[in-house]
Amino acid sequence: MKRIYWLAIVLGLVLFFVLAEVGAASAKWKKVKSPVDVTLRAVYFGDSKTVFAVGDSGTIIMSKDEGKTWKKLKSGSTAKLRGVHFTGKKNGWVCGDGDPNAPSARGHVVSGRPMNCGTCLITSNGGKSWECVWVHTNFDLRSIWMASGKVGQICNHGGSSHADGDKVLTSDGGRNWSQKRIYRGLNDCCWVNEKVAWAVGSRVSVGFRPTPTSPLYTNNTVRIIHTSDGGQSWAPQDCTDHGRGKELRSVWFVSSKSGCAVGDAGAIFITTNSGKKWQQVKSGTEKALYAVCFTDKKNGWAVGEAGTILATTDGGKKWKKVKSPVKETLFGLHFNKKGKAGIAVGTDGKIIRLTQ
What we know:
Blueprint: H1 2-26, E1 30-32, E2 40-45, E3 51-55, E4 59-63, E5 71-73, E6 80-86, E7 92-97, E8 118-123, E9 131-135, E10 140-146, E11 152-157, E12 166-170, E13 178-181, E14 186-191, E15 197-201, H2 215-218, E16 224-227, E17 235-236, E18 248-253, E19 259-263, E20 268-271, E21 279-281, E22 289-294, E23 300-304, E24 309-312, E25 320-321, E26 330-335, E27 341-346, E28 351-355
Antiparallel strand pairs: 1-28, 2-3, 3-4, 4-5, 6-7, 7-8, 8-9, 10-11, 11-12, 12-13, 14-15, 15-16, 16-17, 18-19, 19-20, 20-21, 22-23, 23-24, 24-25, 26-27, 27-28
């Protein structure tokens, strides 16, 4: 009887883990009714149930039930909102650009581009009201990450014709932002604490006189950079050049060692040693990937062009294409902390949802 008892336990555990592995890669995403029809560019859970998404024309929408139903919030902005991050369901930050009412930029500016400041919106009451802070650069503000209530980063980018950017940092909760050139446009960043972070974007493509001697400039094909001192200094990381003009669009670290970056032409890179070495893996697609998110060290998702959805159950070594309920491009992706609910957002206000 004891042997049968223990055999039953072992078989049960095996079945549990097999189903867990199969479930992550074969789970079905479903469309959710959206309150808007503008492009949504980013999404983030404030807690296990509360989730926010942002997009064009100053759009901010919110759900209190894991993304099942949504309502539009008043942002007070008309900017193209590209990034959102919350440190709880009350405290949140949003960034974007293109607000015609913004003042002229005094910081890093490029002629030929709109000269208005970028936008940072801050809430401390779960989105009921938003405070606007002007960020003095006329670059795109493509994403934002707050390592705490005080320390954070905005990733900025000069666009395809001027792929340059800065480290844009705050130490006072977003009321003030400092900038210093890092010679490449940044699309996304991920902080694991107030000191350690990674950022991804373009390779160096803009010339300077005199020629900079910084490793950030001389390592001109690198698209992944790393800081261990709260963003004061950054260093390029060992990563294969996957093609001139191609960029990395999103990065996610599930721990201080395990990370994944995705980008143009289906590029996926993974690391298990804090980015000292990045390995390019096969994605099975040539579609651009715009967002990646892991729920634990093994299970992760990536979304992108034409509704593409990929899933991994082995830490990113192998990826499987998952059936998508939409054909529109998906720009934003996030799961709640328990990993039981995920939301992806994209063109024409599309929202899709996965529950595990």
